Amino acid sequence: xxxxxxxxxxxxxxxxxxxxxxxxxxxxxxxxxxxxxxxxxxxxxxxxxxxxxxxxxxxxxxxxxxxxxxxxxxxxxxxxxxxxxxxxxxxxxxxxxxxxxxxxxxxxxxxxxxxxxxxxxxxxxxxxxxxxxxxxxxxxxxxxxxxxxxxxxxxxxxxxxx
Length: 162
Prior knowledge:
The protein is of the alpha+beta class. The protein has 4 helices and 7 strands, in the order βαβαβββαβαβ.
């Protein structure tokens, strides 16, 4: 049951979208084998709707059903005058993948970043996410950088060690 890309719209998050956003947010966590505590998810939702925050998001809609989500964060850079825009989360329901919805969500972020005067949009993906990388290789360039991290918070649980 895929989507016809012409019938899919992308809209910035609204207060009334929470009940459509939350199941996608949970499915995204399941995909990456993580569990974000409910308090953090509640704070994330509040930030996504707060226009004073540098975070924002959107849902992809196929008719009345939300089929994908994207979250992005604007932040300063020491390398440019314009902010960078980090595309933090991108998820499309499995039955709707391959129809161009991910690309449409990314292009929404490109437009939002341009509207805010950002100089770059960038994101990460897991090395095993081959389907996503196939899309990303068509619409962006690989930076060649490797991410390292040190977790200071216990708000996310996963099977990965850091």
